Amino acid sequence: MNTKGQQVIREWYKRKNWQQFPFQQEMEEAYLSGYSGLLNAPTGSGKTFAVFLPFLAGYINKYPDTYTTRQNNGLMMLWITPLRALTNDIKKAMQEVCDELGIPWKVMTRTGDTSAADKQALKKKLPEVLLTTPESLHLMLAQKEYFRIFQGLQVVVIDEWHELLGTKRGVQVELGLSRLKALASVCSSEFAVGIKKEWKDGKDCPLPTADCPLKIWGISATIGNLEQASDVLLGNDFPTGKVRMVRAHVDKRLVIKSVIPENIESYSWSGHIGVRLLPQVMEIVAQSKTTLIFTNTRSQAEIWYHAILDNYPEYAGIMAMHHGSLDNELRNWVEQALHAEALKVVVCTSSLDLGVDFRPVDSVVQVGSPKGVARFMQRAGRSGHAPGAVSRAWFVPTHSLELLEGAALKQGIKQGIYESRDPMLLTMDVLIQYMVTLAVSDGFRADELFKEVKKGTYAFADLTRKEFNDLLDFITKGGKVLAQYDEFLKVEIENGVYKVNNRRVAMRHRLSIGTITSDVSIRVRWLSGKSLGTIEESFISKLNEGDAFWFAGQNLEFIRIKEMSAYVKKSAAKKGLIPSWMGGRMPLSSQLAAVFRDKLDQVAHGNAEDEEVIALKPLFDLQAELSHLPQSHEFLIESFKSNEGHHIVFYPFEGRLVHEGMASLLAYRISKIRNFSFSIAMNDYGFELLADEDIPIEQALEDASFFSIDNLLDDILHSLNANEMARRRFRDIAHIGGLVFTGYPGQPVKNRHLQASSSLLFDVFSEYDPGNLLVRQAYNEALAFQLEEFRLREALQRIEKQTIILKEITRPTPFAFPIMVDSLGRERLTTETLEERIAKLTRPQDWGSNEKPKRGEAVKRARGRGF
Questions:
Q1: How large is the average pLDDT for residues 278-299?
Q2: What pLDDT digit, counting tens, does each position of 629-653 carry?
Q3: Does residue 518 surpass a pLDDT of 70?
Q4: In this predicted structure, what is the pLDDT of residue 237?
Q5: Residues 6+ away with beta carbon under 8 Å from 80
Q6: Which end of the chain is more exposed for a tag (fewer CB within 10 A), N or C?
Q7: CA 237, CA 455: separation in Å to the nearest integer?
Q8: What residues have CB less than 8 Å from 697, skipping those under 6 apart?
C-alpha cells in the first residue's frame, strides 16, 4: 500500500507525463525502508530524481497534513558534487519539484563561486537542501559550533561518486562523512567536544539512536568495482544490514561512429590535434541541433574554438567554449545558453562531462582518445540526455593509429568493460589537514578521533595508533625536526582537547582547505578590470609586453602584470600562443589497453571487421611487410639504425606511464651488460631506447631475468631518479598537509618560492627524519601514480609468458614512427621545425645500414617498502 508521500510523487509523475522507471521505484522502496547505499545509473536516466523524490516522499510521510506549510526546517539534505558547474543545474531541477508540489523549501548552493553575502545569509538561515563540494563541506566543519548546521541532517548524497573515488577529494569526502555519522549517532550528550547540544525546541534529540541514523547515498556511473565503491563510501562502521545497491537496467541506446580520414597513410602520426578533420566534424555539427565537442585538454579546446571561428565565421554568435579556467560568469552564460537552445556548438573539456542536463544536445564529438571506456561513455551520454533518447557520439582520431583505439572503445562498451577506481589509502597529508580543520573549529579529543577515523573511513582502516600519534606530534610540536619553528606549531592541547587558538593560523588554514593542487593561477583581465578567467603563472611568466595569445575565445595582447592579474587588450595578430595547463596527457587505462591488444590480435589473425580496422589496412599491411603484426601470445621488439644511433623499440601496448617506468627499468638492466647512455621516448603503444652505439639486445634477452619482477622495486629505484620524483610529489603533499602556505586571495606565493620551500622541507625530513610519514607517502605516490608500478608489475608478468619477436628493420614502421615523432620533443638544441624534422625521418638517406647490433598488498604499497 502506497504511503501519502508515494501517492504525491506518483501524481507528480503523472502530471509531468513521465514514467517512473523500475530502478526509481526500487530506490524509493530502499530509501523509505531506511537503507543507505549506492545507486548505479547511466547518465540521462533520471538518477537525480531517483534519490531526491524518495527524500521528499519521506518528508511528506512525516508531515502528511502540514508539509505544504512547514517552513524553516533547517538543513535536512546535503548534496555533494565534484564540480561547481553541476550545482546550478541540480538546484534548478530540485527547486522546480518543490515549487510544483507546494513544499515551501529553499534549495541553495555553497561552493567556491558562492558570494560572501550569500555565505553570510546561509549562516543566518539554512535551507532544507544544500548543494556543495567536498572542499566547502570541510569549510563548514571549520566553523565554530558547526554541529548546529547538521543537527537536523537526515541524508547525505554524493553525486558522481565514481569521479571522486580514487582521489584525495574522495578521501576528503570519507573523512567528512565520518564526522557527520559521528554527529548523528551521538544523540544524548554532545555533538562536539565541551559543547552541550542545544536543540531549538528544547526537546530531546529528534534523531533515532541507532548506530548510524544518517542515510548516505552515492550516485555513480558504471565502474568496474561498484561493490568496493559502496564500501569506501559508507566506511567500515556502517551497519551491513542497512546497505543496498540499486542498479538501473535502463536500455540506453548509444550510437558511436568514428570519423575516418580520407587518406590514412598521409594522416598525422602524432603530436597533432585532429584539426585536419575539421570539415568532417563541421558536417556533423551542421546536421545536429546542438553539438558538444569534447577535447582532453584546455589547450585543445582553445585551438579547436579558433579553428572553427577562422574557417566557419558564420558560427560566430552561436558557438561558445567551456573549460574550468574560464571565468564563472562566462561558464554560467554558456550553460544557460545551452538550456535556452541558443548555441549550435560548444567546445569543452571535462568541465561539461558530468551530470549536467542539456536536453538540446543531440550529438557529441570526442577529439582524441579519452583513454578510458567509462570516460567515453560519460561524455557520449551528454547527448540524448533524457530517458529513452538516443545518445550519438563521434570519435575523432588525432593520429592514424588512434583509430584502433576508437574500435577498442566501441568493443569495450559493447562488452561492458569499465575501469575500476582504486581507493586511495593512508593519505596522511589529507588526514593532517582534516585534524587541523577540526582543531580550528571546536577541537577534538585524540582517542575519539582515532576511533572515528579508523572505523568510519575505508582510507584509514589500517591506520596504526603510532602513525596517528606521529601526526598528533607533527601538528602540535612540529615532529622531530620542526619543533624550533613556531609556524609549524599550529595546534595546542587544553584539557585533552586539541585546538587552534591562533586566529592567524585559523585564517590561513581555512584559506588552504582542499586537495586540488595546481600551478599558481593568474587572473586575466581586460584593461577595464573585467575578468576572463585564470591562466597558470608558468605560462604568463614567459610572455613579454605585446605578445599575443589565445584565451577564452579571444585573441589577446599581453600588456602587464599588476597585483597578480594579467591585463590584456584585443590583438589584431593572426597568430598567438596557446596557454598550457598542467596535467595535459591522460594515460591509457588498463582496461582499454587490454581491449586494444585484443583488437590488435584480431587484426593479426585477419578476422577484425571494424570500419576503423578496414581504414587502417594499408598501415597494418605496411607494418607486416616491414616488420611483424604481433598476436596476443607475442611480444614485438624492433631494432634498427639511423644517423642518430641504434634504436630498440618495444611494444607492450600498456600506456604511457607504464612505458616510462618499463623503459627506464630495461635500460638499467641492459646497462648491467655494458655502460650506456640512453635517450628514451614513449607513447601509449610502446617505447624507444636510443644509444649512440650498438645495444646488446640479443644478449639481454638471453637473460631470463630481463623481464622478471624479481628485485623489481630495487631496479626501479636504481633506474630512475626516485629521489627527484618523490620531491616533485612532495610539493603537493606539503601544500595539502599545510607545510607551505600558497598565499592570500589576490596575493599568491610565487610558484618558484613554493617549490623551493617544499624542496627544502623534503631534504630536511629525508636527512633528519627518514621515517617521516609524508616523505614515505611522496615515494609511494611517485611509484603508484607516476609510474603505475602495480600495472608495470602485471605487464612484465604478461610479457614473460609471451614469445619474444625481435625484428631487425631498415626503416621506421607504422608502429615505430609515432614514437619517434614524440622523441623529437626531447630536449635538444635545434633550429628546425617539427615538420622539417619529421620529413627527415622519411628520407631513406638518413637511415644507416641495418647491420646486426651487438590491501593487504594495497596497504603495504601505501605504507611503502622500506624507503
A1: 94
A2: 999 999 999 999 998 899 999 999 9
A3: no
A4: 81
A5: 132, 133, 134, 137, 156, 157, 158, 159, 173
A6: N
A7: 5
A8: 637, 639, 648, 670, 806, 853
